[in-house]
Amino acid sequence: LRMFSNLLSLQCEQIIQHLNHKIPGVNIAELCQRIQTSGIEINVGDLAKIANIISFLFSTAARNNLSTEELVATLGNAVSALPKHAVQVIRHVWNEQGKSISVSEDARNMATMGQFVDIKWKLGVAMSSDACRSLKYPYVTVTLKVADPSGQIADKSFEMTIPQFKNFFKQFKEMAAVLETV
How far apart are CA 139 and CA 160, in angstroms? Predict the structure, then answer.
């Protein structure tokens, strides 16, 4: 129970940091793995729903300047059967950090699209397939880590042939050239 409260508290704090644009988002998959490692059964989808509810709740409470009691009452209306200890964690985090949430128009406008977090790539060679015993086909796998507008971080992966990668690289060089003129 204590471990769950700590991890929920961490999730709430990360949501507040995201709402303040201090971090690009909350890595739900990583948090879910930590919760499961602590022995609590929860899936990524359920944790993502909880994150969305808390994020909506915190941003709405900040916009409307809600007191802690008003926030807890709103939480009770939004989520039925939420465990008492979870409500206490949310109440505590809001008491400590809720007033720090920025509600400026500029901050709200910035949160309308996803944000790039990280990129990883690797070069691979497909050796064979069902149709061909000797392929020796090179490819590049790219994994982008992106925070969606709600603040959830997800990995997006895709593969490219070498000609596709060369075109991709050429476009990045063109972007870099344009950025140098700014």
Answer: 6
